[in-house]
Amino acid sequence: MAAAKLSEFGVNHVAKGIGRLSKEVIESGAGSYVKMMSGKRFLDFTSGIGVTNLGHCHPAVTKAAQAQVGTIVHGQVNIAFQKSYLELVEAMLPLMPHKSLDTFFFWNSGAEAVEAAVKLARHATKKQNIIVMQGSYHGRTFGTMAMTRSKTIYGLGYSPLMPGVFSVPFPYCSQCSVAKASDGKHNFENCCMDPITQLELLLQRETAPQDTAALFIEPVLGEGGYVPPPKEYMARLREICDKNKILLVCDEVQCGYGRTGKMFAVEHWGVRPDILIMAKGIANGFPLSAIASSKELMDTQPPGTMGGTYAGNAVSCAAGVAVAKAFKDESILDNVNARGAELRQTLQAAKDDPKTSKCAPGKGYASKIQAKCMEKGMLTLTTSIYDTLRFIPPLNITKEDMAEGCRILKEAIEEVAEGAQSDVKQSHTKTD
C-alpha cells in the first residue's frame, strides 16, 4: 500500500509534457517481460523503444555494469582516458559497416549524437545547411527538433527553431502519390525515384551544394513508419553526396545494432556513410550514444570543441562492451533473422486473410490493435502520422516468446476486424 501511495503521489508531480502508453508503474524486467507494481506481467514488444535490445537485465551486461560500478563510475573524458571507453572503441571497430569508420566520440543520448554529427559536419565542411528526410526523427533537443519531421507535436510551440535545415521526401512507396496514380507501374519493387528528383531540385532551388554540409537519413525510417527505402535509393544518395561534396550521415539510433538482421541497416545496401550515428541498443539501457567517422574527418576538430560531463560514462561503456560481446557469443543476428521471419509470416497471414485484411490503415485500427494487445498482456507501439503498428521485441527473444507474441497479435487483429465489421453492419442498418 505504501508503495502504491508513493507512486500515486509521484504521478502528480511528473511533467505533463511526457506522453506514455500506460499509467502502469514498471517494477522490474527480465528478458522479454516486464512486471508492473499492479502485479500484471507484460510481454514487451517495445524494448524501451528499441533500447533493451538484449532483453531486460541481460545477465552479462548486468554483471559488467556491476563490476564497473565497483571500480570507477565516472572518470570524465576531458580529464583522462577511461579504460572502459577505450575497450568499447576496440569492441566497436570490427562491427562498423565500413573500415573508414575508425574514430569514435561517445555521448549520452541519440539526440546528442545527432547534434555531435551536425557539429562535425559543419566544422569539417565549413558549410552550414543540412538536409533531412520528411518523416524523420532525430530527437527533441532544440537543435534536433528542427531536424525531426515525423510529427509536428515534437516541435509544436518552440519556434523559431535552428535555421539552415531543409527537407526532402523519403521514398515511402505505399504512401507515394506517384505510385498511387501509376496503375501499378510504380511500387516498392519498381520505385519511380521521385524523391531523388526532389533532392536534385532542392539543391538547385533552396540550398546550393556550396552551402550544404550534410544529408541526414535513417536508413530505415523510424518514427515516420518503419519504412525501408527501395533498392538503389541509398546508392543514388551516395552518388549525389559525392558529386556535390556533401557528407552522408546515417542515423542508426533506432535501426542499427542488429534491428534489421544486420549489425547496421546501411549494410543491406552496401553504402558507406561519412558519419554513423548510434545510440539506444548499444548499451542495453545505460545512457550511451556515439558517432563514428574517419580519423581524417574527426581530426578536423581541435581539442576542446567536443566533450560533455557524462559523455562516454564508464559504466555505460562497460555495458556497451558486454553488449558487443553478447552479439557474437549468443549469435544474436541469427536469432533476429529467424524470429523476424516468424513475425513477418504472422503479419503476412493477417494481410492475406479476407477478414482481417479489412483493418486497412487510416481508420485508427493500429491504436485499437495496440489496446487489444495490452489487454492480452503484450506491450507494443504505434508510430507515424499514418495508421502504423511497430514491433520492437528484444533481439534475443526466444522462439516460444515470439510464438506467444504472434498469437496475441493475431487474436487482437481478428477481434478488431470483427468489431469493424459489426460497426459496418450497424451503420448499414441505421441507413436502411
Radius of gyration: 23 Å
Reported CATH architecture of the largest domain = 3-Layer(aba) Sandwich
Mean pLDDT: 93
Distance between the termini: 54 Å
Query: Structural class, judged by helices and strands?
Result: alpha/beta
User: Helix coverage percent of residues?
Assistant: 25-40%
Biggest pleated-sheet summary? 7 strands, mixed
Described by the principal axes of the CA atoms, the overall outline is globular
Per DSSP, what share of the residues sits in E-state strands of 2 or more residues? 5-15%
Would you identify the regions where 5 or more consecutive residues have pLDDT less than 50? none
**How many structural domains does the protein architecture include?**
2
* CATH classification class of the largest domain: Alpha Beta
Task: Give the CATH topology of the largest domain.
Answer: Aspartate Aminotransferase, domain 2
Characterization of this structure:
It is a single chain. The protein has 432 residues and is an alpha/beta fold. The protein has 2 domains: 59-329, Type I PLP-dependent aspartate aminotransferase-like (Major domain) (Aspartate Aminotransferase, domain 2, 3-Layer(aba) Sandwich); 331-432, Aspartate Aminotransferase, domain 1 (Alpha-Beta Complex), CATH 3.90.1150. The protein has 14 helices and 13 strands. It has helices at residues 2-11, 47-50, 59-69, 83-92, 110-125, 142-145, 177-180, 194-205, 233-244, 295-298, 314-329, 332-352, 365-375, 399-431, and strands spanning 26-30, 33-36, 41-44, 103-107, 129-133, 165-168, 212-217, 247-251, 275-278, 289-293, 378-379, 381-383, 388-390. It has a 7-stranded mixed β-sheet with strand order 4-10-9-8-7-5-6, sandwiched between helices. Strand 1 and strand 2 (33-36) form a beta hairpin. The N and C termini lie far apart (54 Å). One of its GO terms (molecular function) is identical protein binding. InterPro entries: Aminotrans_3, Aminotrans_3_PPA_site, Class-III_PLP-dep_AT, PyrdxlP-dep_Trfase, PyrdxlP-dep_Trfase_major, PyrdxlP-dep_Trfase_small. This is 5-aminovalerate aminotransferase DavT. Belongs to the class-III pyridoxal-phosphate-dependent aminotransferase family.
